[in-house]
Amino acid sequence: MLGVIGAMTEEVQLMRAQMTDVTTSTHAQTEFMQGTYKGTEIALAQSGIGKVNATICTQIMIDLFKPKKMVFSGVAGGLLPNMRVGDIIVASHVVQYDMDLTAFGRRHGESPGRDRLIECDPDLVGRATAAFDAAYDTVLTNNDFQPPSLMLGTVASGDRFVQDTDTLRWLQREFAALATEMEGAAFGYTCHLNGLPFAVIRALSDGASETATGDFEDNLHKACQNSFHLMDKLIPASMSERRSGERRGPEFRVA
Ligand code: ADE
User: Fold this and answer.
1) Could you tell me the pTM of the whole model?
2) Total number of domains in the chain
3) Which residues' Cβ are closer than 6 Å to ligand 1?
4) Which of 65, 152, 185, 239 has CB 3.0 to 4.6 Å from 157, enough for a Cys bridge?
């Protein structure tokens, strides 16, 4: 069983439409759907926006559906100037940027007894990048279709919609973050503390600058389509057995 979570209706409805044999149940005012996605058993839920909602939803899904792996999919604000709407970010790490114990000499994002950055599962990250290759045949570009770019890096999460250049630069400089959103780190911490492999997949809806609110509204649909296009390939690939010699995904840690 693969656990899949998105925050908003738009982020889960495309996946929901492809599920078969669906049974639904409601826990903590959150609807959970269990069923099959192109042959893969999944549990799917819409968490609602923000870290508290993401944490509650993730823990309930883990407790009730006993998934072996977890993926969070949705949209984010990009933090680098050369990024484009629809580009895909596969998180290598997640960080709660608004955890602030700097008053006690700690770094932003750091809390006692916890890692500041949580590493996503390299195997799932590798499967997600392979799914990107399958979803967007980037070699075939002799037509007008502009495929999105793929970037791997840190995703910074906080309970705030970022729409100012100072904050976006701070997130980039302080955490070397590529994108910001409002759930990934809470989801990731919860999976990590439960010992479950997890990945966070995001498509960019805006640039987290002063025009972000309007950009988000204009681009939400397109960004959701791009993250869904990748999820459509990743879900069936996520639980398959690895063949010997198959690419294993990046190694983030320096031994
Ligand atoms: N999700 C999409 N865009 C975002 C932004 N600019 N800030 C926070 N979450 C987002």
Assistant:
1) 0.94
2) 1
3) 75-77, 161-163, 180-182, 205-206, 208, 212, 216
4) 185
